[in-house]
Specification:
heterodimer, A: 116 residues, mainly beta, seven-stranded mixed β-sheet, four-stranded antiparallel β-sheet, B: 118 residues, six-stranded mixed β-sheet, 12 strands, globular
């Protein structure tokens, strides 16, 4: 089946630093990748939709300058949390699909970010 | 706009009981996909089922079954003879076109925490 990887699986960083999270589709080309954020005991909130070769589309309320998304190739998207603060601590999950219409959406294992 | 509502925040049952998780969705699109995912404590989402909007056939997979009714915009999930290992958070999700753009997006419901007691 389709596999999506995320790296790192967990990261601890100091307040003020930037953290980059990678999302890769290992055995398919992802036309679209999605980035989600999940706080404890809450649902997955869509942060942005990333299409290869074009700018990411951010959901309302998500700071573009804080959460930089780059979808440089059909198999790689990156999320950079810039100048991280403790409130950015969360579980970040990416997903990818090779289709536009959502026939199949595949999820990465998630990255747990802790900002101290 | 698209929306998914899971009315049950938490459900607690005793092993071997049947349990149904409700999901109601909203979308203006005629073509869309509905999903159910399981999220165990590890956090990694486990895909359970996908159903497209043109296929209203109910589906059974072992102890799991799904009832899709377009007339009521519902896609409910039933676990028969629940087991302790079924304890997890379950999410219903909708993939639809994001208001006419070329690419759609996947929207999640709030999730239902299922606890199965021995």
């Amino acid at each position: 089946g389709a596999v999506v990887s995320q790296h790192p699986s967990w990261v601890i960083c100091k307040s003020g630093t930037s953290v980059k999270i990678e999302c890769r589709s290992l055995d398919f080309q992802a036309t679209t990748m999605f980035w989600y954020r999940q706080f404890p005991k809450q649902s997955l909130m869509l942060m942005a939709t990333s299409n290869e070769g074009s700018k990411a589309t951010y959901e309302q309320g998500v700071e573009k300058d804080k959460f930089l998304i780059n979808h440089a190739s059909l198999t790689l998207s990156t999320l950079t949390v810039t100048s991280a603060h403790p409130e950015d601590s969360s579980f970040y999950i990416c997903s990818a699909t090779p289709w536009r219409e959502g026939r199949g959406v595949y999820f990465g294992p998630g990255t747990r970010l802790t900002v101290t | 706009a698209q929306k998914v509502t899971q009315a049950q925040t938490e459900i607690s049952v005793v092993e071997k009981e049947d349990v149904t998780l409700d999901c109601v969705y909203e979308t203006r699109d005629t073509t869309y996909y509905l999903f159910w995912y399981k999220q165990p404590p590890s956090g990694e989402l486990v895909f359970l089922i996908r159903r497209n909007s043109f296929d209203e056939q109910n589906e059974i997979s072992g102890r799991y079954s799904w009832n899709f009714q377009k007339s009521t915009s519902s896609f409910n999930f039933t676990i028969t003879a629940s087991q302790v290992v079924d304890s997890a958070v379950y999410f219903c999700a909708l993939f639809a076109n994001a208001g006419g753009t070329s690419y759609g997006k996947l929207t999640f419901g709030q999730g239902t925490i299922l606890t199965v007691h021995p």
